[in-house]
Each structure stands twice: as structure tokens, then as C-alpha cells.
Design goal:
Layout (H helix, E strand, L loop, with lengths): L3 H15 L4 E6 L10 H8 L4 E7 L2 E6 L17 E6 L5 E5 L9 E7 L4 E5 L6 E6 L18 H8 L6 H6 L9 H11 L12 H20 L40 E5 L2 E5 L6
Antiparallel strand pairs: 1-6, 2-3, 3-4, 4-8, 5-7, 6-7, 9-10
The structure holds a DNA duplex (16 and 16 nucleotides).
DNA sequence: CATTTCACCTGGTGGC
DNA sequence: TGCCACCAGGTGAAAT
């Protein structure tokens, strides 16, 4: 479900609600699929640690953790992290902060009981999400392989696609090139830049690449401002929907008139993913 | 190596 | 109402 703007919204919301809290109890209610680190090890490692900060890297949510037994840091200060809990939401994952007596939703795989009486819950019907624990004493901190779309400059952006023959749409989705772009924002940024999704990535002109980077940054920032896109069931850390789906120009608008020229939006398949574009505005 | 396809899961929707 | 095909915000392994 979530791409960069949705993950950013969730990470920020979780951070505000859990920063400085201690993880007092851990329940992992599923023992297959979502655990990149074995469930028992995660449960053992998480218990007693303080949540220092929560932030986004690519599509990953990174929870910075203090040492077990460390003093709760309070809401403002954040000490040096000793470990990380890394959450990837896959297609349908949700990370929620709620009251401990809130009804337990189906497919709740993890519950962290926090000091101050709230719970952090991981819910994921399709189980494409992943939970990982990292001890920073023995492993490096999490780093997404791809570049951050919000901060990369035009030169680096152009270099990502040089010599590549795959469709630009598929290249945008490749997380080892850019971290955080998914199906919605790939389609929306290509519309803003006036570029057909099937164009070979390495064949785009310098001017087109600049329009693409600018369009991508603008669409991601606009989506973050509106709390992300709620296409079906996406909600943020407190269960609120986003509103950027109302601003989509092409994504899931097959057959509807282009907001710019009125021509019917077309749907094709590129790289195995549903892809939407305006045949008039995108060349 | 670069690129494409498919499997992994469950649930919602729309046609008949 | 029921059944079925198709669709889905992601990724990584296997095949080409």
C-alpha cells in the first residue's frame, strides 16, 4: 500500500506518539511471513528498550532504540541508538498507535505495549510486510540501497538512467536506483513531466529528465502535505485517511478525461504493473 | 550483468 | 446470492 509519502506520514505520526516511550511488553501473534529476524529473537530484543525516534528511509520505517534498562529519554531528548527495529509495510501493512483495549483487528501480527499505556501495532493482511531487528553493535545502521528522490540533484538523477534500455516507468520503480517511488507516484510524476511510461530510460533527453525529477519531487511533497493517498485502505498511525487520491491525474483513472486536455486516460501494463497515462499529454 | 516474469498472500470488486 | 476472474500501493528469486 504505501509509498514514500504514506510511509513518511506514518513514520512522522508514530514518532510523535511513541518517542521516549519504553517497550514494556511484546506480543508476536504470527510466526511466519513477516519476520525477517526470527520472532522470538525480536520479542526478546525489543522488550525493555526505549524508542528514541522513528523516521523514514525509502519505504522503510526505522525505529531507533536505546539499550534495554536505559532511562526513558523523555519526549524531547533522543540519545544514541544502540539498535533499530525496521518495518516495511509491503502492500497492505499498517503501523498503528492505539489504546491497549482497542479492538484487535484481523491480521495483527505484532503488538508492542508502551509505557504511558498505549500500543504500537503492526497489521498486514497480505503479509508482504517485513519486520527486522538490528543490533548496531554488530551491524551497520539501516541504509536504503537507492537514492532519496527528495534530495537527489539533477546530475545524479540523470546518471541513474544512463545506458538503460528498460522502460522509464520500470526504472522509477527499481528501489536500488531510487528508494521510495511506487506505482502511484511513478505514474503521476511521468504525467507531470509529459513522458510516456514505456520510453527507454536511457533515451530520455536531459530536459525530460529534469522535468521528471522536478515533477517527482513536487508530486511527493504535495502528497506528503495531504497525508498520502488512500486508494483503498491506507491509514496513518492514528487511523486517519490521506487525501492525495483526490489529486491524482492518471493513477486508476482509466477511461476518465485527462484533467489537462480531456482525452481518455489509458491503462497498459509495464513491468508487470498497471500503468496509467494520457496519450495526448505524454509523448 | 540487465531485464522480465512470476510467486508470495488476502481481500475487494464487478460481471454473469 | 454465488461463483469466478481480475485487480491491488511491493519485493525478491528465478528465468531469459
Amino acid at each position: 500500500m504505501p509509498e514514500l509519502p504514506e510511509v513518511e506520514t506514518i513514520a512522522h505520526g508514530v514518532d510523535r506518539r511513541v518517542r521516549g516511550r519504553r517497550i514494556e511488553q511484546v506480543w508476536f501473534t504470527s510466526h511466519r511471513q513477516p519476520f525477517k529476524t526470527p520472532a522470538a529473537k525480536q520479542a526478546r530484543e525489543l522488550e525493555g528498550r526505549v524508542l528514541l525516534a522513528v523516521h523514514r528511509t525509502g519505504k522503510h520505517i526505522v525505529c531507533e532504540l536505546g539499550r534495554a534498562g536505559e532511562e526513558a529519554a523523555g519526549r524531547k531528548r533522543s540519545g544514541t541508538a544502540a539498535a533499530q527495529w525496521i518495518v516495511h509495510l509491503g502492500m497492505t501493512g499498517r503501523l498503528l498507535v492505539c489504546a491497549p483495549d482497542a479492538p484487535l483487528e484481523p491480521h495483527t501480527h505484532a503488538r508492542l505495549g508502551l509505557s504511558g499505556g498505549r500500543e504500537l501495532r503492526f497489521v498486514d493482511p497480505r503479509r508482504f510486510g517485513r519486520l527486522e531487528f538490528r543490533d548496531l553493535g554488530s551491524a551497520a545502521g539501516f541504509a536504503a540501497p537507492g537514492a532519496e528522490p527528495l534530495t537527489i540533484d539533477d546530475g545524479e538523477f540523470a546518471a541513474l538512467f544512463r545506458g538503460r534500455r528498460l522502460p522509464i516507468k520500470a526504472a522509477l520503480l527499481n528501489q536500488t536506483l531510487l528508494a521510495g517511488v511506487g506505482n502511484i507516484y511513478a505514474d503521476e510524476s511521468l504525467f507531470r513531466a509529459g513522458i510516456r511510461p514505456r520510453r527507454a530510460a536511457g533515451r530520455l533527453t536531459r530536459a525530460e529528465l529534469e522535468r521528471l525529477r522536478t515533477g517527482l519531487v513536487e508530486v511527493l511533497q504535495a502528497a506528503i502535505r495531504l497525508g498520502g493517498s488512500s486508494v483503498s485502505d491506507y491509514v496513518d498511525a492514528e487511523g486517519a485517511r490521506g487525501f492525495f487520491q483526490l489529486e491524482h491525474c492518471v493513477y486508476r483513472r482509466t477511461g476518465q478525461p485527462c484533467r489537462s486536455c480531456g482525452m481518455a486516460i489509458r491503462r497498459i501494463v509495464v513491468g508487470g504493473r498497471g500503468t496509467h497515462y494520457c496519450p495526448q499529454c505524454q509523448r
